[in-house]
Amino acid sequence: MASLFAVQPPTPSSILKTPGTNNFLKTNPTLHHFKKRSFSLNSVLSTETDPNIPQTVQRFWQWLKDEGVVSSKTPVKPGIVTEGLGLVATRNIGRNEVVLEVPKRFWINQDAAAASEIGSICSGLKPFIAVALFLLSEKFKGEESKWKYYIDVLPESTNSTIYWSEEELLEIQGTQLLSTTLGVKEFVQNEFLKVEEEVILPNKQLFPFPLTLDDFFWAFGILRSRAFSRLRNQNLVVIPFADLINHSAKVTTEDHAHEVRGPAGLFSWDYLFQLRSPLSLKAGEQVFIQYDIKKSNADMALDYGFIESNSDRDAFTLTLEISESDEFFADKLDIAESNGLEETAYFDIKYGQPLPTAMLPYLRLVALGGSDAFLLESIFRNSIWGFLELPISRANEELICKVVRSACKSALSGYPTTIEEDEKLKEEGNLSPRLEIAVGIRIGEKKVLQQIDDIFRERESELDLLEYYQERRLKDLGLVGEQGEIIFWEPK
Ligand SMILES: C[S@@+](CC[C@H](N)C(=O)[O-])C[C@H]1O[C@@H](n2cnc3c(N)ncnc32)[C@H](O)[C@@H]1O
């Protein structure tokens, strides 16, 4: 599914600044329910005959047949699975075999919105807003809509944190996910208020139905959880039928979706959205893809409403900042910018992985001062980043350790529960899907914070053993002997 579209949440409210004067580090947040469909799990019977397959899904399937999108050769069909609806193999499928093709006339994207009845108001709108308004307009048309059978199978919500109640959100108190969720909700609300005032209300003839913030959230959640973004020239496209496919961690590749040209009806050719199975499957097994290998569990919770249980996706974003009140602000900013960074830098730290390469140099730069400040002079401008990749001085290294460790401790104290308490809850099981997400996120973030603290604790304990800039410089000049002694004069 990949990242859908860039949402820049406003600066989250719960940014933790480190105490004291060195407040350059923030432990800052990163950034379905069916229409009461009741079904039993893992039903893979024939779509037509299985009474557990809701009528809406059966009608959708018939529509796809009538439109020539599926035929007797299509090797998958909708099934009821643990993840809700899914696609199930009707025969053995080989790895990389095509499982479905959907012609362009069924793609829901900015072009579809522009070509629709609401097309006149779509130009100038952000793509996601145009597509959201299109979906809502078609939804409200009901029987009249060409997309009726598709819209009928869409869930009313997912377990995405954007749909959680206040009580449910309390379960992620202290987490970056909470701040990100609140930021995204505020963003969506602001976008709605703007589009309501500028587009919806002045065009009552195009929107002859009450359109609420909840409706807009529904459309936003649908796009966020179902749109594909990795196709050529397609940044945001919902593909009915293909969007029934679920995610599995077992799939570790991402190149299953392609845009190809091919027959799209009896006598026509068109672009087709083609999906290949990343795994070989037996008849009756579910087809899965990998939604996005790079997303953290917090991203998964926000976008799709589920997380993975392994720690690989646990992450925490550290936000570092060059303070405007720093006496060397201009020089430091110049150095950061020359190295692709800015006044504020975000470092995503993943569980079990080394720190991002630019993090230590950036930290050392931000903390640079006192007798090390000469390195900020312009004669060193071309070489300073290289210097910063290694420890500069004991004072500088000690400061970054203290600041990072204090930020980790402060962030850890903001979680109402300990890792042990959460692990116990997880072991006891029986958690609702949302509570399972909350507990998983709480554990994940805390483990990453603990990991960061461990790295800098170890570094702190090695401060006397590290080699600093001055020593390296003397060595380069040949002024340090084999035993590390400083050579003041050449022996005669
Ligand atoms: C693209 S839709 C897939 C079809 C969806 N299952 C349905 O019933 O319409 C993505 C949504 O499916 C569900 N989903 C997909 N993979 C999942 C997984 N591995 N675990 C739990 N839910 C999953 C989530 O609700 C997600 O937001």
From TrEMBL:
Top-level taxon of the source organism: Eukaryota
InterPro entries reported in the protein's UniProt record: Rubisco_LSMT_MeTrfase_plant (IPR011192), Rubisco_LSMT_subst-bd (IPR015353), Rubisco_LSMT_subst-bd_sf (IPR036464), SET_dom (IPR001214), SET_dom_sf (IPR046341), SET_RBCMT (IPR044431), SETD3_SETD6_MTase (IPR050600)
Name the UniProt record assigns to this protein: Ribulose-1,5 bisphosphate carboxylase/oxygenase large subunit N-methyltransferase, chloroplastic
Localization annotation: Plastid, Chloroplast
Signal peptide extent: none
Organism: Sesamum indicum
Record bears the keyword Thylakoid: no
GO biological process assignments: methylation
SMART domains assigned to the protein according to its UniProt record, in alphabetical order: SET
